Amino acid sequence: MSDYQHILLAVDFSEQCLFVAEKAKALANKYHAKLSIIHVLDNIPMPDTNYGVVIPLDQDSLDGLLGAEKAKLMTIADHLDVNLENRWMIWGIPKDEIINIADKEQVDLIVVGSHGRHGLALLLGSTANSILHHAKCDVLAVRL
What we know:
By secondary structure, this protein is α/β, with parallel strands linked by helices.
């Protein structure tokens, strides 16, 4: 394993999210790496916005669902001491948006939680599995 310079934590706000976050923080501390965080919205309706698909985290939101998601991201990022410019909340397909940010920001490790999938979900694949097979950098799938 190389010395990582920039670690991207992908969060989904599951019950085990903080467990994955702590793993990412420990790795960032170990390697003295920059830690970034991303949450991709794929299951709430996108309001009419002039901002595009990236949601500005430094502005108040009038949408209740969006506000709740943003508050969760900010709470976790604050707990991990992630700088505001290294926080992203984006609408889209999680795999695609996580990989896009990783490429754009020159991330060398993506940390994501991996739920043990069974049945149809196993056949269709998971976000962690998709990231693992398409990312240009290392991926740590934390078993949940």
